[in-house]
Write a structure and sequence with these properties.
Layout (H helix, E strand, L loop, with lengths): L1 H13 L3 E4 L12 E4 L5 E3 L1 E2 L2 E2 L3 H22 L44 E8 L2 E8 L15 E8 L2 E5 L5 E3 L4 E4 L5 E6 L5 E8 L2
Helix pairs in contact: 1-2
Length: about 210
């Protein structure tokens, strides 16, 4: 019996409690029963109106249940091994700034700042490359003399950008040209500009193709 008391007392002490055992030998009393008090002397388990009520097994079950409860709470509240923090995604690279332009294109307008062309047609070369020449022609009332047709050794593609004009190619009738009209004059073909508008400039774009 003493060994049992020592066991229960040790278990209670481990729980921070004090084991109380009745020693009153009274018929129908609480002799041999136990109770538990806390460190301040307050009754915790095994106390009734007529004295102690818990036998040794009840005390063991209470203390073991308390230990299991404490162990469970400890497991739930004790932090486990720290998980490695997820690496932060690398910041998206900023879009590269567009490179600064190294030159500024020169923009010109074929229909702006036109020459008067009252004394004669005005010819302006716009582009020259091997086998290619592009020019602007401005007319105002001029025409090709009948006895001095134009003829060249290369093909010429011509478009009328503004104004009005008539043109005749060898062995053909005269055709009237308005803005946007264009035609091809082949190498060796005689041709005449039969008339151009007198009240406004007529602007031609001629592409000379050599070879």
């Amino acid at each position: 019996m003493a060994e049992q008391d020592d066991e229960l007392r040790a278990m209670a002490t481990h729980r921070g409690l004090k084991l109380v055992k009745s020693r009153r030998r009274k018929a129908g009393g609480d002799f041999g029963l136990y109770g538990l008090k806390d460190a301040g002397g307050a009754e915790v388990f095994g106390f009734g109106a007529d004295g102690l009520t818990a036998d040794a097994d009840a005390i063991r079950d209470f203390l073991r249940g308390g230990m299991r409860s404490d162990w469970s709470t400890s497991v739930e509240t004790t932090p486990g091994p720290k998980r490695a923090a997820k690496p932060k995604p690398a910041p998206k690279p900023k879009p590269a700034s567009p490179p600064k332009p190294r030159f500024k294109p020169e923009v010109a307008n074929l229909l702006r700042d036109l020459p008067e062309a009252k004394e004669g047609e005005a010819f302006t070369d716009l582009l020259k490359r091997p086998g290619l020449r592009i020019e602007r022609i401005v007319s105002r009332g001029q025409a090709t003399p009948e006895d001095a047709p134009m003829v060249q050794d290369w093909d010429e593609w011509v478009v009328l950008l503004e104004g009005a004009a008539g043109i005749r190619i060898e062995d053909s009738a005269e055709v009237r040209l308005g803005p946007g009209d264009h035609l091809l004059i082949q190498a060796g073909q005689k041709h005449w500009v039969t008339w151009t508008a007198r009240d406004r400039p007529s602007v031609w774009l001629a592409v000379h193709l050599d070879g």
